[in-house]
Write a structure and sequence with these properties.
This protein is of the alpha/beta class. The chain is built from 13 helices and 16 strands. Helix 10 packs parallel to helix 12.
């Protein structure tokens, strides 16, 4: 029996990207390169020094991740000098380096699935207004409104605080972007309408994809002024990958792919047989069910996004640490439930160092932790090697430039 589980902890990078100096985080006075950013390394150090005490306390407690080689992977990626883990090593570990020209969700996920991005994404300038007039006019036409709000780079939660009430009064959608190649539209589920927002983003997406804007993201929210909250009904309208990915390889060979989280959106549902969306806590419940019941020759591909959205972008070190400790508890249960022939891989798509300046992703290597394939060091690998390894495990023909470590 062969089953594969690929779990992406969104933004849980481990530093050391050799090209980090080419990527930047915006600041009020300019830009700062990502050189030295290290999501996991800096969280571990903050916890050890008592700087992450909100809702938790002390050193980061992630024994199950450490047993798969987490500390070793961080030290390999960045030479940050963390103390060696005391946990007995039961897994294999590596540090993966990305070649795609982006530190965004599609770039990371597509490359992990065997397809590096062959083009340069289009990014909107960090100025106000951020969007060309023709795009603004198109949004107004599609939404049947006379104006838009925002039109700038912004934090998704902060912009709701600043413009949510005006949005409810005017009916104008809130449009904003970030350092990623994205066009995001926030709208109130009740006063604007969730379905209306989704249709707006769906109809806008093809126009922006032609410009190489990677995603149009619907950001529905609820609540009242001072108490706005984004809902779990986010939807990403992403460009289609430029060539068949791991999902297609599995699907086309007669296997099946179950997507957990925003994987279906990221891959435009190509090669996806079934999917589930929701909060990370609900998604992990579905992952437990898949470990218990998934059939042979299946890939379960998971993205847990709240590390990134709730804690990385908000620069919340304590919250990020709490999320890692929560996942580690769940991981312990998952590891015990694995069956002979299973391979369970944990990795990330980019970094989002909560100790770093700015609010954007950070260019980093990512850890690759493997259960079900022995123990010990794998070493430095490419993102594409993850896809090649899963293909080998599921007895598929390997495509692309990846090399299996299994």
């Amino acid at each position: 029996m062969a089953r594969a589980f690929l779990t992406v902890l969104d933004s849980v990078g481990c530093g050391g990207a050799p090209d980090a100096a080419k990527f930047f985080n915006g600041t009020a006075t300019g830009t700062v390169p990502d050189t030295g950013a290290n999501t996991l390394g800096h969280i571990l150090k903050a916890c050890a020094s008592g700087e992450a005490e909100d809702g938790r306390s002390g050193a980061l407690h992630v024994p199950n991740l450490e047993s798969l080689g987490l500390i070793d992977a961080i030290n390999l990626a960045s030479d940050i000098g963390l103390p060696k883990s005391r946990q007995p090593l039961i897994g294999r570990w590596a540090a993966a380096t990305e070649v795609s020209h982006g530190k965004d969700t599609p770039s990371g996920h597509w490359e992990l699935a065997g397809v590096p991005v062959p083009w340069e994404w289009h990014y909107f300038p960090d100025e106000t207004p951020a969007f060309p007039q023709d795009i603004t006019d198109l949004v107004k036409e599609l939404a049947s409104v006379t104006g838009i709000l925002g039109n700038c780079h912004a934090s998704g939660t902060r912009i709701l605080e600043d413009l949510g009430e005006e949005h409810m009064q005017s009916g104008w959608p809130i449009c904003y972007t970030s350092a990623d190649s994205v066009f995001q539209i926030a709208a109130h589920e009740e006063t604007f309408g969730r379905e209306r927002l989704l249709v707006l983003c769906r109809d806008l997406a093809p126009h922006l994809h032609r410009l190489r804007v990677g995603r149009v993201i619907a950001r529905p929210f609820v609540g009242t002024p001072g108490h706005f909250e984004r809902t779990a009904h986010r939807k990403d309208y992403a460009m289609t990958p430029p060539s068949p990915t791991l999902c297609d390889w599995v699907h086309d060979s007669g296997g099946s792919v179950h997507a957990i989280g925003k994987i279906g959106d990221i891959f435009s549902m190509r090669g996806i047989d079934s999917y589930v969306k929701g909060s990370d806590s609900l998604l992990v419940k579905d992952l437990h069910a898949r470990v218990a019941d998934a059939a042979e020759d299946t890939l379960t591909f998971t993205n847990l996004v709240e590390f990134d959205t709730n804690y990385g972008h908000r620069r919340d070190v304590s919250g990020y640490a709490r999320a890692l400790e929560w996942f580690d508890v769940e991981l312990g249960k998952l590891l015990k439930a694995l069956k002979p022939g299973d391979v369970f891989i944990i990795t990330a798509d980019h970094g989002n160092d909560p100790t770093w300046i700015g609010t954007d992703h950070t260019r980093e290597r990512v850890p690759v932790l493997v259960a079900g394939a022995g123990s010990g060091k794998i070493g430095h690998i490419a993102f594409q090697d993850v896809a090649a390894s899963i293909a080998t495990h599921l007895r598929l023909q390997t495509r692309g430039d990846g090399v299996s470590f299994l």
